[in-house]
Each structure stands twice: as C-alpha cells, then as structure tokens.
Amino acid sequence: MVLTAVPVLTIGMLGWMSMLYLALVHRRRRDWLVLVSVAAASVGGLVLIGPSEQKSWQATTGVVLLLGTMVFAPAYFLAVDLRPQPSDGVVPGPGTLVPLPPVQPGYPPPGLPRQDRIGQVRAGLDELSAYLDQQERA
C-alpha cells in the first residue's frame, strides 16, 4: 500500500499522512494521539536539523527523530490496518464464549436422489471447465 511507503520514501517527513488516514478511518482517540505525536516528531526533526551545524546535538536529535518516524509510522500503520476489525464494533474480552453458527450439514434435500446430485455436480464442473478454457484462450 502506498501509505506504508510514504514515510520510508520521505525519510519520515510525511509519516503523518498514513497516521491521518488511520485516524480518519478508525476514529479512535489512540490513532489521533499517534497522529499528533508523529507530526510533532516530523516537524521537530526538521526544525532541529534546519539551522544547526552538521555535528551538533540538535542535528543528531533531528535525524534520530526523522529516522524513528520513518520506522515507526509504517510499522504502526501495518499493525493497525491489517488487524481484523469486528463487524459490530464490540471486541469480546478474554474468556468470553462466542456462540458459533448452527451447523448446516452438506446433505442434499431428502427429495433429491444421489444420482441427481452427482449429475448436478458434473454439470457444474463441465461448465467451470468450459469457462476456464474460454478464459485461457482469451
């Protein structure tokens, strides 16, 4: 994803962009705080590097801030964005029993003999085979 590469390609200066995406999509307080922290580290790093001499502690601190942002922002983005989100917004706590859906056996309805079912499966496989052959020729 592009938002993972932006902090790395800009050496941490635009790390706030991927954090802004997370904050807008997830709308959690933690993501907004991370956005503010990453933006402050990026701006602070640039400010410290800008007017200082090459071998001063300010320049070193600024480079460390930018490099830290360059590593932290994509790692946090991937950790949060790839985490599966519950559909109803409620995360079950540890030890909570989550009910499973009822088991639906794969048996044909009682009125459908076995031979009819085999014929349906064969027809479906033939149709799939014809479709794949057509796609392969195209």
From TrEMBL:
The chain crosses the membrane at residues 6-25, 32-51, 57-79. Keywords: Membrane, Transmembrane, Transmembrane helix. Residues 91-115 are annotated as: Disordered. It comes from the Bacteria. The keyword Transmembrane applies. Residues 99-112 have a biased composition (Pro residues). This is Uncharacterized protein.
